[in-house]
Amino acid sequence: MGHLASKSIFYTLITTILILIPFNKFLFSHLSIPLTPILLLVPLIVYYFFHSISNHSTTLPPGPLSIPIFGNWLQVGNDLNHRLLASMAQTYGPVFLLKLGSKNLAVVSNPELANQVLHTQGVEFGSRPRNVVFDIFTGNGQDMVFTIYGDHWRKMRRIMTLPFFTNKVVHQYSDMWEDEMDLVVHDLNKNEEVRTKGIVIRKRLQLMLYNIMYRMMFDAKFESQEDPLFIEATKFNSERSRLAQSFDYNYGDFIPLLRPFLNGYLNRCRDLQSRRLAFFNNYFVEKRRKIMAANGEKHKISCAIDHIIDAQMKGEINAENVLYIVENINVAAIETTLWSMEWAIAERSCPGIILALPILGLIISKLVCNFEMRAPLGMEKIDVSEKGGQFSLHIANHSTVAFEPIIA
Ligand code: HEM
């Protein structure tokens, strides 16, 4: 009812204003400001005001009072991290509502209620919320991670399970993982400076993880941190993460009216995504396609992408889906495991955890067994201050750690 009232007020106002605009020059000629844009904004503000009041009278959960157009966005800013949400739950209870512009965000913090949302009613809440930027990075859901929970998701998940998410894969590759980890220990041992000055360990672990995942995916690896292909791959992926997880585009995402101002940002995303997918395709996927074609019937599937290409040849998915699986693994597998290594912890409810946990456990134990790890000379302790993104909390300044070899 309130919704209807706000709509009719909106239309009455807009009609009145459209009638007034031609007379604007005569009626308000004594004022020096341009009135037409202001007049056009009035009905919108009134609409949003009545709209938000009418929403409060329904059965929506409680929450902080919101203002028209912006909702609660100005109150929470770009600081939507778990600590702020936990402190708000103290005030508003285990289910509360935040309005972020035109979007309603229900925050559930009680474990039983969270179980209801994630399990009992999992089908309704199964899809991840998409936004304008994720639509670009997933080709409108042609991938697996951000696609709508349904038939396409099920098919992609099934196709990805065999080459990535089984115990067999863990057994098949664990020797290779250990080889890559031993190379890290070897590099740390041979570098004298690492004992005193320390190194940003993330960089070496990043090369290790890329090699682990790219060997599993493409049977390919990078020579060193200076390998031009490695530099390009990491640049593409970190720019993708920066653009997708930045808070910079929230204004256009939360307030559709402001979306035209986002065009420059969205074009940067589109440009990056097309160059990035071309990079994966030209340097990795196409190479495997050629090897498979040359071997013909005799080809022995020897890495994950062979399985995926095979699914494409059987007509289950298309070439775009193949590329988006590569895109998903680059983001979901590599950066996440790297962040977790820096924290030395892991989250659950992810199919890739079957690989991530043994990889994490192995590398952490190899480092602990071989080195005394401490803050570099002149520093009291390792800096572990946090930095929040849209989806994760990571270490703000990649830690410099000194590695003193343990002589057995
Ligand atoms: C320690 C490292 C990792 C962490 C902390 C992590 C964390 C997560 C989280 C929190 C989710 C969302 C789960 C949900 O929505 O219920 C997720 C989903 C996902 N992860 Fe991981 N992950 C890690 C490693 C990996 C690895 C190694 C792979 C691949 C080999 C992977 C592939 C995926 C995929 C494909 C999804 C989407 C699943 C779906 O939509 O069905 N992850 N991960």
From TrEMBL:
Coiled coil: none annotated. The chain crosses the membrane at residues 9-27, 33-50. One of its GO terms (molecular function) is iron ion binding. It is found in: Membrane. One of its GO terms (cellular component) is membrane. It comes from the Eukaryota. It holds the Pfam family p450. Keywords: Heme, Iron, Membrane, Metal-binding, Monooxygenase, Oxidoreductase, Transmembrane, Transmembrane helix. InterPro entries: Cyt_P450, Cyt_P450_E_grp-I, Cyt_P450_sf. Signal peptide: none annotated. Its cofactor is heme. PANTHER family: OS02G0467000 PROTEIN, TRANS-CINNAMATE 4-MONOOXYGENASE. Belongs to the cytochrome P450 family. Catalyzes the first oxidative step of the phenylpropanoid pathway in higher plants by transforming trans-cinnamate into p-coumarate. The compounds formed by this pathway are essential components for lignification, pollination, and defense against ultraviolet light, predators and pathogens. This is Trans-cinnamate 4-monooxygenase. It comes from Castanea mollissima (Chinese chestnut).
